[in-house]
Design brief:
By secondary structure, this protein is mostly helical. 77% of the residues lie in helices and 0% in strands. The protein binds fe (ii) ion (2 copies).
Length: 209
């Protein structure tokens, strides 16, 4: 793609992500016969808050992967990021649908999260393929940990949310190992810490807003 095409493709991604028009290419891992009525109101609210956080994470994943694809000139890395972003768009569609099923909404701050993550992705992408892949590997590793913590917190009766989070966790682990296999650099400890703090700010806020 030419430079202009790539910028237009990014703009298209931003609009689709924020308007919720992504359709999953893989079927949702949630069981079809989920008994929603079994969730008490308090459990439903907790599930919705956690799935809203996860939806924000996927909004950020779209922004990060698309910005990094735009910022790198390495064709192999671009293909790898595009493939991961396709998995992330399934996650985006599944978490959004689950929020609707739980009668709740996505974060009001999604445009802000998208813009912030896009800026970080552009910066990481400009630092070269090894750093860019290193950023992906570390992000996906932290997301994997975060999703593990959600599996511990989601109500046991919420089979649908749990199945979605479990599948996302498997995909994120694969994205991390693929990035490492492609030559990801190990990021400095202060950068990893800064990423952790930024993620904490995002998850704490998205739980409520
Ligand atoms: Fe994801
Ligand atoms: Fe991922």
């Amino acid at each position: 793609m030419s430079g202009v095409d790539r910028v237009l493709s990014c703009a298209d991604n931003a609009l689709r992500t924020l308007s919720g028009t992504y359709v999953a290419s893989r079927s949702c891992p949630a069981p079809v016969d989920t008994a929603e009525a079994e969730l008490a109101p308090e459990q439903r609210r907790l599930s919705a808050a956690l799935m809203r956080v996860n939806h924000v994470g996927e909004v950020c994943a779209q922004a990060l992967y698309n910005a990094q694809t735009l910022a790198t000139d390495d064709a192999a890395v671009q293909r790898q990021f595009e493939a991961a972003a396709r998995d992330e768009s399934d996650h985006l569609a599944w978490t959004r649908r689950r929020l609707q099923e739980l009668d709740d909404r996505t974060s009001l701050l999604n445009p802000l999260w998208y813009a912030g993550a896009f800026g970080i992705g552009l910066l990481a992408g400009r630092l070269g393929p090894a750093i860019s892949l290193g950023f992906v590997a570390e992000t996906e590793r932290q997301v994997e940990e975060h999703l593990q913590s959600h599996l511990a917190r989601l109500p046991a009766a919420d089979h649908a949310s749990r199945a979605i989070v479990q599948r996302m966790l498997e995909d994120e682990a694969r994205h991390a190992s693929e990035a490492r296999a492609a030559g990801a650099a190990e990021l400095p400890a202060p950068v990893k810490l800064a990423m952790r703090l930024a993620a904490k700010l995002m998850t704490r806020t998205a739980h409520h807003v």
